[in-house]
Design a protein that fits this description.
2 domains, mainly beta, two-stranded antiparallel sheet, elongated, twelve-stranded antiparallel sheet
Length: 210
């Protein structure tokens, strides 16, 4: 059988002042398995405040605030025998399986970043964020990025500092960025994440900004 997830969204962001920005993202979510489907409408809301000192940024967001999901489809219609132990009982009575509603994984996230070292040659970015999901334990992540000449970046981070059951832990990566004569920017990123019993994960990203 087939199974899949689909999300379609539209986002809007605005810089209200030179230091404060906010954004909202509305989305339609659908999950499917075999002949069954469930759908929901949800929004993500976030805000960012920038400080002058050390380029400190404080951000927070609420994700997946929306309606509950419930699987429906032809697979809930079955035939049932009310008295299987009795001879001659009708075993073709139409019946309906009631599925249970389930909520989206609502998540609150708050994070802070700063650039304690910034020169014309290189700069250091450090970041920390905390996550509070409604269906799991709270977690903390930290990371750092060292950039040379705004072209080469070396990154490392630790995922799930407070979750002892998490498979992911220390991550490494690097990035390259090329600026053209105009406003075009081409970038490439690589990240390595060991997932314990699930094996290693390698992520490659190639993008263009204009």
């Amino acid at each position: 059988f087939d199974a899949g997830d689909l999300a379609i969204g539209l986002a809007y962001g605005k810089k209200l002042t030179d230091r404060f920005s906010f954004g909202v993202h509305g989305k339609y979510i659908q999950q499917s398995i075999w002949h069954m489907k469930a759908s929901s409408m949800a929004v993500d809301i976030g805000a960012l405040y920038s400080f002058i000192f050390k380029d400190i940024k404080l951000g927070m967001s609420v994700s997946n605030f929306g309606t509950d999901m419930k699987l429906s489809g032809v697979d809930v219609f079955i035939y049932h025998d009310l008295s299987e132990e009795k001879m001659g009982s009708n075993d073709k009575l139409p019946a309906y399986l009631e599925t249970t509603k389930y909520s989206l994984p609502l998540m609150f996230r708050v994070g802070v970043s700063a650039k304690p070292i910034k020169t014309s040659m290189y700069q250091l970015l450090v970041a920390l964020d905390a996550v509070h999901p409604n269906d799991n334990v709270e977690d903390i992540h930290i990371g750092a990025e060292l950039t040379f000449y705004d072209m080469i970046a070396v990154r490392t981070g630790y995922h799930s500092l407070t979750n002892n059951d998490a498979e992911e832990s220390l991550n490494f990566g690097f990035g390259l960025k090329y600026k053209s004569q105009g406003s075009w920017r081409i970038f490439m990123d690589y990240a390595y994440s060991p997932y314990g019993r699930l094996g290693d994960v390698h992520r490659y990203t190639l993008g263009v900004n204009f």
